[in-house]
Write a structure and sequence with these properties.
Blueprint (H helix, E strand, L loop, with lengths): L1 H13 L3 H7 L6 H12 L8 E4 L9 E4 L2 E4 L8 E4 L4
Antiparallel strand pairs: 1-4, 2-3
Helix pairs in contact: 1-3
Length: 89
């Protein structure tokens, strides 16, 4: 359940960047900038004991993403998808 809340938080956290990207007619942000955002705002700059995985390309709006036994739909705009493993093996 915790991963589902974190996944939702990641999508919502990046949503404030959409108006700027739409005004510029460019991708929301680069993958490296998106990772920095996750590092600073989701992990609070402390990734100790966690692993972060990201997609190789931008996820299109309203894409269904299979996450374990659930399907999560991305927000109504394109963006990067990151998964934070709180308890890696």
């Amino acid at each position: 359940m915790k991963w589902y809340i974190l996944l939702t938080a990641l999508f919502l956290s990046v949503s404030f960047l959409v108006p700027y990207a739409m005004a510029l007619d460019e991708p929301v942000i680069s993958k490296s900038r998106a990772f920095e955002f996750v590092f600073e705002n989701v992990l609070n700059g402390v990734p100790k004991g966690k692993r972060v995985y990201g997609t190789g390309e931008v996820v299109k709006a309203k894409t269904e993403i299979k996450a374990f036994d659930k399907i999560v739909k991305s927000p109504p705009f394109d963006g990067w998808f990151f998964f934070v493993d709180d308890y890696p093996c």
